[in-house]
Amino acid sequence: YRGEDFTLTLNVRNTGDSEAQQVAVQLSAPQGFSTLTPSTFNLGSLKPGEARTIEYKVKSSPAAEEGVIYTFTVDIGYVDELGISRASRSFVGVPLHGTVELATYDVSAGPAGPGVPFTLTFTLLNRGTTTATYTTLSVVSEDPFKPVEEPVYIGDLDPNAPLPVSLKAVVKPDTAEGEYQLKVKVYYKDEYHEEHVKFLTFTVKVSKEITPSSPMPGKVERPQIPELYLYALIVLAVAAVSAGGIAWRRRGKRRKMEEKI
Predict the structure, then answer these.
(1) Number of alpha carbons in the 13 Å side-chain half-sphere of residue 145
(2) pLDDT tens digits for 228-243?
(3) CA torsion 205→122→184→141, rounded to 10°?
(4) What CATH number does residue 187 fall under?
(5) How far apart are alpha carbons 238 and 123 in whole angstroms?
(6) Does residue 235 sit within a domain?
(7) Among 115, 203, 206, 245, which residue's Cβ finds the most Cβ atoms within 10 Å?
(8) Could you give the number of structural domains in the chain?
(9) Which of 109, 122, 221 is nearest to 170 (CA)?
């Protein structure tokens, strides 16, 4: 990663049919990288088929560009069985990864009760330096929780781009009251299409007061009027209005007759 130290491991093998003597391996780092260990290793002699492993400690510059494969040069010098000095050169590509750092806020979990489904909502933020691609979230089936839906695919999670997330889970019926840790699995790929898995943890309070038929806190349930009764009330209201209109007309006619008399 940019600005961090890492280990570059090389395996040097004599693939010939004669002994190589005075074997020396030199690593040359590209711009933006430096070796923290000596750049040259003297391995002595290598018999046919013999191999040695060497490790270089390397540091990348904070200014190095992420998402780029940098080429390191490896030069190997040796003396063959005839005493002739020979050399070979090879190249090693090292990808510089960006970082994906996940954070959550605005978390709302529950309320939850034994045997009752609930919704976990939160905002997911990538505080890293590179995009997490093919991002998929899912509730981990771990006591006392079980997912009630398929994994949620959110695609690209760009750096510093908050994304609201909603996941559904259910508490197992025999769960005792208390606080439990709900785990959410986050799967994604980095800029080199390498797969990664991280886990987020949320605290969920389980209460037996929450039942399948209980209302949500703060929500007042109003009595429901059956549809048939509602229709009857409407008909009665219309009838009452009609009757009032007829009575008003009759009164008007009676007054006119009295005035004529």
Answers:
(1) 28
(2) 444 444 343 444 444 4
(3) 50
(4) 2.60.40.10
(5) 52
(6) no
(7) 206
(8) 2
(9) 109
